[in-house]
């Protein structure tokens, strides 16, 4: 999206540097002249204030907001609801910070100039639909899995240094049996006895693991229900389970107009090859940017297809020949193909039935 066709007398562009409690806005003209700056609270009253302030300076034609998925989520949603044109702006270029310093007005002005220059083109996620519900549910699930893994590692490390009799009693057990056994330990009441203290610690850790496991199971069920209600066709694709589908939907966001093409979706997932050319040398390198969770979801799906899908296995077998590329290179190609295959499914799921689809 470009703002060139909107330029004219009295038009202004606003850049906003966001923080937890207060934001700073700087207004410039569509010819680059600096107009004014404003600090305002990160709450509905502050959002209304900056809106009226911007209109007092002219006609706001575009807004550049830093951190639209974190501190800037509130102001971004407010502006989108009012019909404003909002762009997501990356952090200030380091060379600029070295030359002019780092202040909130400097960052806000840089955000406005990024919009004016056309380097800020990303449309922020609205975060007001079912995808946001999927995002927060998956976020809690991932943190619960991380906490459970940490507790299991602590439990096993504690067993290594446990008294000999206790260590022998717990040796060779699988994780489920080990956790169950530790959860049923009955330590003596003596606080100062190392064996009793170790048993109490193991029991607490095991019961914490059990609680986290129950929580993860509940979150799994909720996530499956949310994904099924939002994009059931996505789950029909080979190798795409609820968690992978959730990661891909979260990358896309609630507003499908962010995704202009399947190539844009591939870039969003970090599976598009990056061209590298200099002089007579030209090749494509691996893309290490993009949404890494979506990238990992595509990778898991490709590995599943490599193991169980006859067509994918045949594709790899036919190309694993001298000069045909190594397996890692072919997996990257399959990830790019999968992004192309899943894009229309995701777009269809996120587009209202009465809205036109993107070309």
SSE arrangement:
Layout: E1 11-17, E2 22-29, E3 34-41, H1 44-57, E4 59-66, H2 73-81, E5 86-89, H3 94-100, H4 104-117, H5 130-160, H6 164-170, H7 175-183, H8 194-230, H9 232-235, H10 242-252, H11 262-268, E6 274-278, E7 281-285, H12 292-308, H13 310-319, H14 327-350
Parallel strand pairs: 1-4, 4-5
Antiparallel strand pairs: 1-2, 2-3, 6-7
Helix pairs in contact: 5-8, 5-10, 7-8, 8-10, 10-12, 11-14, 12-13, 12-14
How would you describe this protein?
Helix content is 56%, strand content 13%. The protein has 359 residues and is of the alpha/beta class. The chain has a five-stranded mixed sheet.
Helix coverage percent of residues? 55-70%
Shape: globular
**If you compute it from the alpha carbons, what radius of gyration comes out, rounded to the nearest whole angstrom?**
26 Å
SS-derived structural category: alpha/beta
Query: Using DSSP, what is the number of strands?
Result: 7
Strand content: 5-15%
Low-confidence stretches: none
Instruction: Count up the helices.
Output: 14
Topology as a string of helices (H) and strands (E):
EEEHEHEHHHHHHHHHEEHHH
Main pleated-sheet profile: 5 strands, mixed
């Amino acid at each position: 999206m470009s703002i060139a066709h909107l330029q004219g007398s009295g038009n202004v562009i606003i850049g906003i540097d966001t923080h937890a409690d207060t934001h700073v806005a700087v207004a410039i003209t569509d010819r680059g002249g600096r107009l004014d700056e404003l600090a305002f609270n990160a709450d509905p009253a502050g959002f209304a204030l900056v809106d009226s302030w911007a209109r007092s300076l002219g006609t706001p034609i575009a807004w550049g907001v830093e951190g639209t998925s974190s501190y800037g989520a509130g102001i971004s949603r407010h502006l989108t609801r009012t019909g404003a044109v909002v762009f997501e702006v990356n952090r200030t270029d380091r060379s600029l910070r070295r030359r002019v310093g780092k202040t909130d007005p400097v960052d806000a002005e840089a955000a406005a100039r990024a919009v004016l220059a056309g380097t800020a083109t990303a449309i922020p996620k609205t975060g007001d639909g079912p995808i946001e519900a999927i995002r927060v549910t998956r976020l809690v699930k991932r943190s619960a899995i991380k906490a459970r893994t940490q507790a299991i590692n602590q439990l096993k490390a504690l067993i290594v240094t446990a008294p000999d009799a206790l260590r022998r009693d717990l040796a060779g057990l699988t994780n489920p049996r080990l956790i169950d056994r530790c959860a049923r330990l009955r330590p003596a009441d003596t606080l100062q006895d190392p064996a009793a203290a170790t048993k109490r610690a193991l029991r607490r850790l095991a019961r914490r693991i059990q609680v986290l496991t129950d929580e993860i199971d509940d979150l799994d069920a909720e996530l499956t229900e949310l994904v099924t209600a939002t994009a059931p066709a996505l789950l029909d694709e080979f190798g795409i389970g609820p968690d992978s589908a959730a990661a891909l939907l979260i990358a896309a966001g609630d507003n499908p107009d962010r995704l202009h093409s399947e190539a844009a979706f591939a870039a969003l997932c970090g599976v598009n090859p990056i061209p590298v050319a200099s002089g007579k040398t030209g090749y494509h390198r691996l893309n290490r940017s993009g949404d890494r969770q979506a990238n990992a979801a595509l990778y898991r799906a490709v590995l599943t297809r490599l193991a169980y899908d006859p067509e994918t296995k045949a594709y790899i077998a036919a190309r694993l020949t001298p000069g045909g590329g190594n397996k890692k290179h072919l997996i990257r190609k399959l990830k790019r193909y999968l992004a192309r295959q899943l894009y229309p499914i995701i777009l269809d799921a996120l587009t209202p039935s009465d809205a036109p689809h993107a070309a």
